[in-house]
From TrEMBL:
Listed InterPro entries: ParD, ParD_sf, Ribbon_hlx_hlx
GO BP terms, alphabetized: regulation of DNA-templated transcription
CDD domains attached to this UniProt entry: RHH_NikR_HicB-like
Similarity remark: Belongs to the ParD antitoxin family.
Keyword vocabulary terms for this entry: Toxin-antitoxin system
Its job: Antitoxin component of a type II toxin-antitoxin (TA) system. Neutralizes the effect of toxin ParE.
Keyword Hydrolase found: no
Superkingdom per UniProt: Bacteria
UniProt name for this protein: Antitoxin ParD
UniProt cross-references to Pfam families, sorted A to Z: ParD_antitoxin (PF03693)
Amino acid sequence: MPRTTSITIGEQLDDFVSKLIDSGRYSSTSEVIRSALRLLEQQESKTEALKKAIYAGEQSGESSLTLREIAAKKEARTECINSLILQQKISQASLSTH
């Protein structure tokens, strides 16, 4: 259930919020604050995931691979993923034209 909360922001942030509303990008201060909080929530989630990944990496011990080998594996994986994404887009475009 939504609740009303009072916050105090400095003049600089108040001006920024006003500019966003005046530009038409947002319709209200509440909308700006909700958007900012969603971004903060995403950032916190990514930070937590990164901390967990770092911990898991530290616990896994040393790799037998060199940095070049690791980079090559990552590059190959990225190319594979990009290829799959492209194939999916082509397939979706083909379906939408029929």
